[in-house]
Specification:
about 180 residues; mainly beta; TolA/TonB C-terminal domain; 2 helices; about 10% helix; elongated
């Protein structure tokens, strides 16, 4: 008797529809935010002339971060300010010194939606050290942090800036970052 070689059976490929993916709901416990959280100061690097060393920003342990350190303006030339125009902060005799500076609060709507971002503002520190007009230059995302920052920055007070020993208005640009922890 002859042995017949065994051939592997061919299996016809049968296409089956992929199983439908059912969305699942998972609940992840979210820790409750601490009561009355405040942002933590975070430095945002910015070019400054070598003569204008910046002071460290205060650090407040909390649920968010905000950079509240004044940055040098974009001035490069004559910083006389004699015509009454503000002098870029980088052209002052030294860095502005904060006398009263609180951290901006983390807006509740941004916290609820887990939104982080930043806002860039420009403001004038007058000859008395009060903050004058505050202008939002940019914000990411828009519509969350502006009011909190504008309200807070207007209340800040500084030792007036000087050029060649004379008190002048200072033009400051600053980025304030908001980070959830």
């Amino acid at each position: 008797r002859k042995k017949t070689p065994v051939r592997p059976q061919q299996v016809a490929a049968v296409r089956q529809p992929a199983p439908a993916v059912q969305p699942t709901r998972s609940t992840v416990p979210v820790p409750a935010p601490p009561s009355d959280p405040q942002p933590v100061a975070e430095s945002v690097p910015q070019a400054e002339p070598a003569s204008a060393a910046s002071e460290p920003a205060p650090v407040v342990a909390a649920a968010g971060t905000g950079s509240t350190q004044p940055q040098a303006g974009a001035g490069t030339g004559n910083a006389a300010g004699r015509d009454g125009s503000p002098v870029p902060a980088g052209s002052l005799d030294g860095p502005l010194q904060a006398l009263a500076r609180t951290q901006p609060g983390y807006p509740p709507a941004a916290r609820r939606q887990n939104v982080e971002g930043w806002i860039r503002v420009q403001y004038v520190v007058d000859e008395r050290g009060s903050v004058g007009p505050v202008k939002v230059l940019a914000a990411e995302p828009e519509g969350f942090f502006e009011q909190s920052v504008l309200r807070t920055v207007r209340a800040w007070r500084f030792r007036p800036g000087t050029v060649n020993g004379e008190v002048v208005q200072a033009l400051v640009e600053q980025t304030i970052s908001f980070r959830l922890r």
